[in-house]
């Protein structure tokens, strides 16, 4: 995918995307993009490619699963007519199965996850002309045998499959984190293994931008 | 200068460095490094060079002039034994001459600025074995004839001269901003032309890291 | 225009007019008029012309453009039946083009500005029997070649043209500020070059009152 | 007394002077001068005489009597070396006799008031080279037979006598208010007949400035 | 009027009656009756006549004029079926004429006051079987020639006339305060001459209870 | 004991006396006397005997036992030179034995209670020339066999004995409450059977004032 | 009744059950179950029987009487389809008769209590397949002759009767507390004899779990 | 160890022990023991063994390592003369090595940990006559190969060794948690794998009490 002058780049997802963004507009000054990877991507694009005038919009909402995205897809994605759409969802779909295992109404199992994500991609395709980026959910746990990490990897595999089949740009965030986890214990990047520190968010921002052929030295 | 395993990298300066840092330690988790360029440098180092284990410390304090740095130099710099020391000071030294012109006690004129900064560099030299980085103060105003911009440029020239004469690494932040200001009006980067947005801080972080031979694609 | 006993004087505009006013009524005791030029005009009128019993109403709303004024014109202006109406709008219409250049939906370009302002004046004419005052927007930047200052001047020229053509009283706020900017750097009057200090507001209050033939020594 | 380039003008008094000023410095940006007559005097001086660069300092402290001024005279007045000093004190000296009549320790009777004020003026004389302004305390009650008004008038007479005998500039604030009270009921200017609205403060600011030969139309 | 076992005693009025009462019910524990004369009446009745089980309800609302009472009369008075109803209104009807003289929409002049109060009494008569108490508004100013005191006295005269003509119990609160004002300056009882201290409220509570033949020594 | 012109009446005790009083002075306007029986006594004295000018001071402190009173007796009682001193202490001395039975360090048993209270009375005698009032502690429990009520009654008996032997005026608060408890269940007067409602405080205020020959109908 | 794998256990009641629970869902992490006996039951079940995966839901609401439960029974109980339902209600039904005796609208007398509770049990029977637990209300007063304790015991007898007749599991909370009250004065367990400390809540949790054949040593 | 009448039981440790306890005393009503396992132990002891009157004191402090305990051992442990002392420390000693690996000053390595803990036990021995309980630190991670879990286990082994050698009662909290982790994923018990939910705290409370031969069915 190519960064082009005047593109509108919309990110949607859960609390990792949200990260305390301005809830009304999802864009503007004064930290309106939150403090996470979306804000970092915007900062890097403005700092390195000021001439492109890329417009970044953050539509993340804390606690969301793919089921919640579906409920607000029309208003928060299609109506906003992004040129590029980036989706990172699944953390809560999986997490609720592990942190509140008895409250099954809150779980989004893998079949519903896959089917819903496919629907959302299909609906966004005609709008996001410059392309869709699918980022995997991740879990900051280096033990691949860990139960929740294993489930998260399965959801990540679903994302990869949908990306492959629908021609979306695929970003493997788990792989990006794994390189760092080889050197740093997970607690350095996130106390709860889910919500990253600024460093963790930078791993996400860099993975996204590298997929977009962003050139730091330009 | 070369990034090396286990280095302790200490930043000192005013509100631009401070940026809501943890006041007790200036390091640690939970946003202890603030939200500005120091936090971004740390995030980029951890994300790209996790194997180096660089320790970043933020000793910026809002409202400081070089006169204030002098008063806390022993405790906040020398005693902390940084391997690399980065200094960016001068904004308030100049600004007070323009925003509260009648309160002359608050002004730090260029002679005092130069002499004090020289002293501080001299005292830090024996401690910061890996080197000292001198970053210029800046003003987010593209009109070079603007009175405050002109004064700020003069202070920047002092910084360059000291860097040259003492063998410090020089970072011309005004030059880095000028490239962006060629495309974006200054209000996009800072409402008050002083305190940058996240994008403005990224310009600083990138300028610093480029001087350190940081490699994004590594 | 002549100050007359029992007049109702209504000010409408953006955050410069609003300045933390009481949002329900826009008048009353306990700082209901805010802390800006409207409150100062009221204070000066009560202090110097207590026998006239001028009633001042503040209908400014932060962030407003002329497009927002249009949406609340009936309720906030016509229904309130002012004898004298003062309008100062345009700051945000211009500013958004410079501080959030990529969010074009927020920009109000000069054609829409002129047409809307004309409409609003036309609608208010039959109500405000004692007259309408048109105050230009301003930018506290002394460099006339500055891009945003230049645009603001163009909007100011629109205001002057409408005033001339419709017989409104014209107040050139930029000109009033320029006299002060000849002696004081803009940061003394406003850190962000837009929201004035008490001194900056007094420049506005004085410009307004001089146009109304207010006599300080009376 | 004549306004001259570069003068430092220090105001001292009680809550009417204080009016929510910055407690550390009593000067600077961001409403550091409070919201009362001191801030208005500063605003008018900067707006009308920007070329003079008058430096205004507010050393008022809520609840103070002349006894409290004595305790901080060295630190808050003499050490600050003002060119012009303005004193308005006495409200609480009188008020406590009327609102908490049984707590006699809080009352400052007229003999102590006169003697203390004389001492303070004597001590300030050598410092405030350009002159001292003595403003009377006042009570926003139009009935001259009212007990508290009568007492306040007696304290005002003391101020006048000291001004006459020591060559200070005398400002009769009660007289200035009386002109307004002829048209407006006292509740319009102050609910408690002591703490003025913005309009009431403007009466004070204007009385002060007229004594200083301030020219609004300049 | 006689205190009888099981009576429901409802007080309605403005901020003097309200005095920070529980807004939903106007009765209950934990200060639900506010901190003014209504709470004191309840405390005195419970302490001295616990065997009567009088139920006290506070329906006062800050800022109310008789016009506001009319708007909520059905819901807050008639529907609540009090045995005894006590009305004290008029303070704001008069005060607004003196503290915001130019905002004439807020004034309730004497004709409207009298007519509305008559209507309300007429509507309450069939409900409040044990009787209605009419308390005058008051002004804590001992000078009878004071403009606002004079107007307040006229409104008090209206209350007396209505009480006489409709057989309501009349409580002259101004007369009760006058006895105290003979010894204490008004500021001791209320800084703004309207909102009483606890002592001032006790004057009201005592005046009310004396009219009810309350016996302290019982 | 006789109320006399100009007396200073000081109350000391625990949270029942304190009741959110102003901690610095214990007197003044704006609820400085708290919201309990002390404030009610003051309100009744001012309302009924304004000509006497009785000065009421509240030195109650929440959580205090007689041991705590001893520690601050010099500063808070003797140094303040009251004419009349009223002491009500013992609630916490007893309560801690029942609510935190294992934390024995917090208990003040009856021997220490008696001895300390005697000492304090002896020290205050020469100061409080008009007399000392000793009020019993109380427990709002009507069952005399209740363990805590029984203990409280024993402490009350100590108070009576000391009053008899030292010629202090004795106020039996438990007896005063018992009359009300005959009609009202204790929860109506205090949820925790200790901290009274306004009605409960009025029982205390009335018991105190009746001992002082206060005449409500005067 | 037997604890079984995957059961949903719903508690309903008043403030003792509520205890600061999450109001939206009544379940989840981060203290969503409040801090009372419901949270303790959940903690004990998870700690000792983690393999059962019992899902605990807290639907208590502060201030509720049985009349309030009726109004929300459909939404908060039946619709939620619990396997086991536990009801503890009646505290406020009784308490209001004693703490606000004059506000009779707030009282729920024993006939209404019995009839309503029967209705609710009948409606819940077909839903709560594994059974219903009826817990008595209680009063932390050891004197059985105390008026409120006696009434509470009568309401408890109603609960026992309904449990017997409808085959619900009966938990006599008053009996459980009585064993503790034999050793500890009631104030140790609850200052107001109603809202228990953590220890008091543990008495409730243990009484409930013992009825469920919970085995601590398992 | 045997629970005996009147024992004073003091817990010391880090945030897991602290859990929002009252910082001054560490005991008393109103949640003074915090909300963690200490409060649960106290609740269970009071509910089941009210006749013993065990006094529980919480001296935990958030963020503490064994190094911090040493600094306050005299004041917070020895001076308080507990009969039984329970120590659980080590979480932060280990955690800092993993979450802030570069800030080595914050790490307490195993040699220092062992030596300091030994010293503290030795100092406490003569005071805590009824015995000392040593609880291991724990990590809520079921993967024994996880780096931080492995380190925590090593510290736990140190605790066991010291307990064995000094005759302290040993509580293996990790083992207690492991039984639960066999059924529940760690996120159910603690989002950050360190700070337990109420259920996790109950695992600790139960492990402690079982070591004390606590009998739930008594």
TrEMBL record, chains A, B, C, D, E, F, G, H:
| SUPFAM superfamilies, alphabetized | SGNH hydrolase
Check the record and name the InterPro entries matching this protein.
Answer: Ester_Hydrolysis_Enzymes (IPR051532), SGNH_hydro (IPR013830), SGNH_hydro_sf (IPR036514)
User: Which Pfam families is this protein grouped with?
Assistant: Lipase_GDSL_2
Q: Where is the SGNH hydrolase-type esterase domain?
A: 11-201
Named from the GO MF annotations, one term is: phosphatidylcholine lysophospholipase activity
Q: By what name is this protein known?
A: Lysophospholipase L1
| Organism of derivation | Paenibacillus algorifonticola
Taxonomic lineage of the native organism: Bacteria, Bacillati, Bacillota, Bacilli, Bacillales
